[in-house]
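job 3f2a | input accepted
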Amino acid sequence: MPANSAEPARTVEVVLVKGGRTKIRYPAELLGDDGVRISVRAPWAGDAARDFGFVRFESGDVFTEHYWRDRWYSVKEVRDARGVLKGWYCDVTRPAELSGTRLVVEDLDLDLWRSADGTDVRRLDEDEFALSGLPERDPAAAAAAVAALDELEALAHDDAFEALLG
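job 3f2a | predicted structure (166 res):
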């Protein structure tokens, strides 16, 4: 929808599920849905700032989030309150499902961070993934999750990463 459109912005509720339970839910502005990729924008939904050591998410941060119906990950562009790019936080997930105004995404524990300048690319939470039991319960989903993390890491080291979101 164009920024100067007279139509009101459509709001969706992003529901992040982890281990069969709702981890967090928050309202987001629907930016686009082309039938494959769903893009939304939302402020930092955490109750408090979260410092990962390599990046800090805090009040005022804005996340532009991209979810796919045919990929096992999501990519979240993170900007501070002034609009300065912090980087991209990527979650390995099952493919997203949008039903009405609910966007449901199942987090599979694996994550990836790419700094704004692309010099810091790091895989995250592989220990949580190993302890999740998914490799034993659903080997096919676990294999898809690991393949998604590998794909994200390869993209993050390439200029093609930003084209993924274009």
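job 3f2a | The chain has a mean pLDDT of 93.
job 3f2a | closed
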